[in-house]
């Protein structure tokens, strides 16, 4: 006779070992996540990102509930991107391949100047990482960098300044730069940019924008 291995049947009434039981948080609450995990999920969904330095109370919760949050987001066809070294995280649409999935996160197309500014900030971030320093940029430096492409936009001075201000306001609104207290006109660059642009993408964009700038300078010299 052959011996058979007996598998122990799980009790369907027994809660999983990693599940946390809690009282309803409010009348009619049917949620399964603890309060801290729910607050974390809301912050990630409202975005634009979670920064461990600015959200010091939520970052430990992210490390604790990361798998649980990732699962909840996957139910919505979303993906959680986390860099534990930089202490930043954000949510993006999951790459579902050939599967048609509804789009939950609204995307806005970047203007040319916004792309130029983001690329510049990403370069400064990479250089600061090599030096082991915080990445800092001034308002004047951002304006000066975008001014290099003024000819390419073929617009008047007032229109160019409006676009420059709009680009800076957009990166501020999305928490990609944050004002440094006690240092007027200076900002710290968020490590989130490292996750948004890979090294290969940065190289490709540098080449593309350098060509645009060179072409506009040649046209200016010829005129």
Structure in words:
The protein is mostly helical and 223 residues long. It has two domains: 35-93; 112-216, Arc Repressor Mutant, subunit A, CATH 1.10.10. 48% of the residues lie in helices and 11% in strands. The protein has eight helices and six strands; from the N terminus they run αβαββαβαααββαα. The protein has helices at residues 35-46, 59-74, 112-131, 139-147, 150-153, 157-173, 192-196, 199-222, and strands at 50-51, 78-83, 88-93, 136-138, 177-179, 186-189. The strands form two sheets. The protein has a three-stranded antiparallel sheet. A three-stranded antiparallel sheet has the order 4-6-5. Strand 2 and strand 3 form a beta hairpin. The radius of gyration is 24 Å and the shape is elongated. The termini are far apart. The model is unreliable at 1-19 (pLDDT under 50).
